[in-house]
Amino acid sequence: MRARLGAGLAIALAVTAVTAAVTSPAAQAATLPRPDHTLVVVMENHGYASVIGSRKAPWVNGLPAAVLTDWHGVTHPSQPNYLALFTGSTQGVKGDRCPVTVTGASLGGQLAGAGLSFTGYSEDLPRAGSTVCAARGYARKHNPWADVVGLPAAVNQPLTALPKDFASLPTVAFLVPNLCHDTHDCPVATGDAWLRRTLSGYVAWAASHNSLLVITYDEDDFTRANRIPTLLVGPMVVPGRYSQHGDHYTMLRTLEALYGLAPIGQAAHRRPLVAVWRS
Fold first, then answer.
1. CA torsion sign, 149 to 150 to 152 to 157?
2. From 1.20.1250.20, 3.40.720.10, 1.10.1370.30, 3.90.190.20, which CATH number describes the 35-269 domain?
3. How confident is the model over 230-249, as pLDDT tens digits?
4. What is the pTM of this model?
């Protein structure tokens, strides 16, 4: 009897070990899709309930999206959230200021180092490579790739440079609207209409071209919870509501995992999204 119990325990431990190996974060990350293109759009200053389920955002709410119901900015105000999403750190920035100089790793640098590509597109940026702090509706505080030492000026582009042929997009692109269209200074409905005009073509194209859209917000309207709307759309995504707790570091970790990149900064302490993807 004791021998049979010992054998049973050994089998149970072996099964547990195999199951743990299969479901470990590393094993899960290995099963993630690899989009041909990913476009990340960062909006501004609205909490989850201000957008998700709101009649003021009909286009966003009509998307076949994976909606993340427990997603958060990492702090207030805006600028350190952008830095967190792009560099894995708030870089010690506690307010909104310009200029900021960042040395070290960034998502853009990682992609280049892996032979992939990155471009950031900012609405109202005066010209490619500009380091101006503000111009019309553009604010450099919302443009972290302009702060990172070592990234070529060519990755810093105005919205007018966004390719009409989406197949010409880089591997990963960030898109930052101006201070009205990102809903910083204008209503949710204005931002939703801008998203529809700007992204409807990409959403339709991505559905048959293995490409992904991420829409997120930098922070909410300055609550302690800092719960933000975040959703993913693409043929590799299963639409629905997903309750995994996450933040900008988690999204960075997910983007890195999609392209086989090592996590940087605080992203190393997060698990990438797994449940949203088609098997």
1. negative
2. 3.40.720.10
3. 999 999 999 999 999 999 99
4. 0.90
